[in-house]
Write a structure and sequence with these properties.
With 261 residues, this protein is an all-alpha fold. It has one domain. It contains 12 helices and no strands. The chain is globular and about 55 Å long.
């Protein structure tokens, strides 16, 4: 009975993944044509942000990658220790691996898709940079000023981790996902992302997360779980290091860009 049930479960996971992949393709098409939705919305949002300094400060306080990483990773570890059974932990490991892989895919897509820079750096828009982001001239001369934002590596990573939690523990996952979405909305409000950046990043993360729940991916998760049971000290050492890398993702990414230039 176990094998047919596994096939049925794989079918549902693949169906969800296919639907989310179509959503990602659709948002990619919109991102490649920013004059349709992205730029008009960015101009409208920027007009509102310029007249609402308190809202801009509030949005700026929410977009810290370190704080976002700390909250999501903390919920992830809570979920891990709240479930000592093999199945939820296996699904959680598979989901974490999928989130990291999705971030790598996002990085590769950023370098290959001819998408526009982030809104505040898009010369076709000429948006006013909110004061909370710092001096406009300095910001526009920064090394990352011309980099594309679709899909966002950071958004894909944290959304993937939140969905991994969601697939194991609903209430914690909803909390993690709601917080991640709030951060993405704050970034859209400040002009750091187009709306399709947030939607496409979430769709990519969700696609990979559902693929990670298929039987072959869960076998990989089971292998990692055997490592935890057989050599717990080395497992938790490596897991702590990975948690730190996730929390400091933004700073480490900028450091790597600086070294490679």
């Amino acid at each position: 009975m176990a094998e047919p049930m596994a096939r049925t479960s794989d079918f549902h996971c693949l169906t969800h993944a296919a639907a989310l992949c179509l959503l990602f393709v659709g948002t990619t098409f919109l991102a490649l044509n920013p004059d349709w939705i992205d730029r008009p919305l960015a101009k409208a949002v920027n007009t509102v942000a310029n007249n609402q300094p308190f809202a801009s400060r509030l949005a700026f306080s929410a977009v810290s990658p370190t704080i976002e990483g700390t909250i999501v990773v903390s919920l992830l570890w809570y979920c891990w220790f709240a479930h000592d059974g093999p199945e939820p932990r296996t699904r959680l490991v598979s989901g974490v691996c999928a989130a990291v892989l999705a971030a790598l895919v996002a990085h590769l897509l950023q370098g290959s898709l001819p998408t526009t820079p982030k809104p505040i750096f898009d010369s076709a828009l000429g948006l006013h940079i909110p004061d909370v982001l710092g001096d406009a001239a300095v910001l526009r001369s920064a090394p990352f000023a011309g980099t594309p934002g679709f899909p966002s590596e950071r958004a894909v990573l944290f959304a993937g981790l939140a969905i991994a939690i969601l697939l194991v523990r609903l209430e914690l996952g909803l909390l993690a996902l709601a917080y991640t979405l709030a951060v993405e909305l704050a970034r859209v409000y400040l002009g750091l992302h187009y709306p399709t950046n947030a939607m496409g990043s979430l769709a990519l993360a969700a696609t990979m997360a559902w693929l990670a729940q298929t039987h072959p991916s869960l076998e990989l998760g089971a292998l990692v779980l055997r490592w935890e049971r057989g050599a717990a000290p080395s497992f938790y050492l490596c897991s702590s290091l990975l948690s730190y890398l996730v929390i400091e993702f933004q700073d480490l990414r900028e450091l790597a860009r600086g070294l490679l230039q």
